[in-house]
Amino acid sequence: MKHNSPTFEAVSPDIGSSFTCLKFNRNENIKSHIWHYHPEIELIFVCGGSGKRQIGSNISYFSDGDLILIGSNLPHCGMTNENTNNDYEVVIQFPMDFLGSEFWQAKEMNKIAVLLEAAKSGIVFGDEVKNALKTKMEALAEATSLAKLMILIEILDELSHTQDYKILNASKYYLQTQKEDNDRISVIFNYVKDHFKEQITLETVAELSNMTVPSFCRYFKKITNKTFTQFVNEYRITHSLKLLAEQPMSITEVCFDSGFNNFSYFNKTFKEHTQKSPSQYRKEFSNILA
């Protein structure tokens, strides 16, 4: 099976606009599952639905829509597919200098400039701000010309003032500027994405990277700030969260479908990641939806 590097995505502004704003109805954003990157900053709003996302080396699950800010050249994939069941998705893309190189240096733009710098590591916003901005996201998708630009600035301003967010890649994400690293690590990421339900050996991924096992382990830890085992377990646990929330499977079935071949190890790893047992997580998730 061929494992591609992240795809470079060429982004063109909308006609009559200095940036791109796309609205996709359910299942329309067919490229979202492809590992890709672009120099443009990207703001993604998913209305409703649930799914997995991978931003840099962070793999996580969202359960009721999503609001993500992704910095320049930060590889990402996920968000929506045929199983997400979202209402729609709004994708905004703009280069850092789309309003001129001096614009973000204005005192009034200081907080937004700080926000855009933090976005290099990927930012996910919480339910409070996500719900508060829903109307503006819809208005942005429908607006034209100057009104469109004004709404975008208003949205970025609100995001720059909220405390309701989480940085997805806590340490510097080295893949932003290192194309060679980008290509090499993407082969590994894609391999894990395609084979996480199977046993994955260090020998296999080291060979994919044209490295010895010790060199690969040091390299992967330096790039992602995680061991390879931690990364694979994170991917498997994220998959199990989705199954526990959405599928009427037994916890044992969830364990094995997520790539774990030992139930006690699954329970231990799940609790390390979520501070809850799988049964607690499912029960609490069901109570939220009830």
Automatic annotation (TrEMBL):
Keyword presence, Manganese: no
Residues covered by the HTH araC/xylS-type domain: 186-284
Keywords assigned: DNA-binding, Transcription, Transcription regulation
Gene3D superfamilies associated with the record: Homeodomain-like, Jelly Rolls
Any one Gene Ontology molecular-function term assigned to this protein's record: DNA-binding transcription factor activity
PANTHER family found in the cross-reference section: ARAC-FAMILY TRANSCRIPTIONAL REGULATOR (PTHR43280), TRANSCRIPTIONAL REGULATOR MTLR (PTHR43280:SF27)
Name of protein: Transcriptional regulator, AraC family
Upper taxonomic lineage: Bacteria, Pseudomonadati, Bacteroidota, Flavobacteriia, Flavobacteriales
